């Protein structure tokens, strides 16, 4: 059996082949972990976008509730307002009757509520959305933890000696 000297050590052909095999396996694991991390980053980005949409919905419902409470406190029977037609294009409008309001309950469906019912619905919707927001935050934190662990695993594999 042929012996080869590498940095103060002698290795046989069999040991060299085994070392090369282990090195290749390590590289394959590192590549696998890096692809896994890339997929986790894609999931993380998607979840963060969804969480941001939910936070925006909560903010919109909160603003609507404040407006309803303002109408009730000031006992407004009619009012002038600006209506968003879309793409931030606004027109002035006059609301003749402020006793009821149409609220988007989801899927593009708008339901007519009196002001008290509207506040009740908004409170329930905000509670639901806050639970959903918390769930997304937990999922995001779990993915961040997985990414950190996988990155640590890659660093540990890279730190191993090549022999």
Automatic annotation (TrEMBL):
Keywords: Coiled coil. Gene3D superfamilies: 1.10.287.370. It comes from the Eukaryota. The keyword Transcription does not apply. The keyword Coiled coil applies. GO terms for biological process: positive regulation of transcription by RNA polymerase II. Residues 37-74 form a coiled coil. GO terms for cellular component: mediator complex. One of its GO terms (molecular function) is transcription corepressor activity. This is Prefoldin alpha subunit family protein. It comes from Polysphondylium violaceum.
